[in-house]
Amino acid sequence: MSLLRSIATIGGLTAVSRVLGFIRDVLTAALLGTGPVADAFFVALRLPNLFRALFAEGAFSAAFVPLFVGTLQSEGRSQARAFAERTLAVLTAALLAFVLVMQLAMGLVIHVIAPGFVGTETYGLAVEFCRLTFPYLLFISLTALLGGVLNAHGRFAAPAATPILLNLSLIGALLGAGPWMPTMGHALAWGTTVAGIVQFLWLFVNTGTGAFWMRLPRPKLEPRVRLLIRRAVPVAFGAGVHQVNVLVDTTLASLLGTGAVSYLFYADRLNQLPHGIVGVAVSTALLPLLSRQFRLGQLEAALHSQNRALELAFLLMLPAAAALMILSEPVIALLFERGAFGPDAVVATANALTAYAAGLPGFLLIKALTPAYYAREDTATPVKIAAITMVVHIALSLTLMWPLGHVGIALSTALAAWCNAGLLAVVLFRRKLLRIDDRLRRRLPRTLLATAAMAAAIWGLREILQPWWTGGLMERAAAVGAMIAVGLAVYGVCVQLFGAARFGELRGLLRGRGAA
To answer: Are 357 and 328 a contacting pair, CB within 8 Å?
Structure first.
């Protein structure tokens, strides 16, 4: 499968998930709003996801995939399956113990991560919700490991579809279980853990249909598993650095009063749309490909793959960032302004979204550049860079939150992303593992010009349609739809006119011709 087709498969299914995620968020905003119950649930949702990056996606997946691919190529399927089963057993045992400890210590944990909640009704709700959501960590971490097995076999569709199940579960919890629960927060907390169970079963069955049924042996730290852990620990620390940044945002926001945690959550959800579709797709498809190419000594092919991934990602991410910054308030008003989500919440959330969106290209670069380190089995360097970035982020957050409130916290996140991306690129350049080829060097400025033309068109239309996007629901929908349609049309035409990309060329790559 070509790199572009892999990215398109992952990105397409992620797009479906994001659409369902928006439906979920619209329902959450209307039924939950931005009050104490909402703040408590969003902390409860962040907590298992914080450790998820340590135990699964950020650590085990990045360290596991290169080792699994190497075992598969050099020793065959039976040895690769045995390695995956032993890894699954060790991960399960470690997670069960960790979940139990966290359940017992949850009151203290919330005291530390959300000190602004202490002494309010939000504190008790946060403790209760976190105890309900934390088992999700066990199931989603095992799901991530199974996804790594499937990705290593070139099967990207099933893992990319797993977030769809999460969104369907939470939508069902809101509409089905919500009226029977004490609060909508309780319904969402239960729905989160149910989603983890469903996601795990989905991928377990998919590994079996690929003739890769996995057993659960007794946990044993055999040599290859120990090697995996040694490589995963620095990656976990690196992922932990990013999650510390998220935790710092939540902790500081809890000190700004009721609603700040929710404003950042809703804004980040919208910001994650292009980041999740493009950035995650590029990173997921690129890591197995670069692992194979580096293992076979195909340095030129690896550099070509990386340049094409960057080219495609910039082509999609730059206009997305510009559009989100310009359309933040109209889009937030259209999606969320109803029920418990009022006009003041629209403005506060839109301001945070504008700040977050400024960092989108930086987040994309991190996703596109980090696989080059992991594919070379270098898990330490990204961690060192992430640690530097963490210090920058905390310093910026503490500096900017006082004059700018929650918007300052969002802006510090964006600036830290650019810092991280810049350092990753500089180190790769010095190691001769990143070389911008003529095609990317020629096309990137043209992509920037096309983005600028699109931004000017959207901005002008936004001013003309201002009475519409501040009107009723149908007027808002028509105005936002018109601005998006015009922006897409202008960008598409300018991309062709300026030579930033050729649609015929993209079609050829999607069919596999010229695949990296």
So the answer is: yes
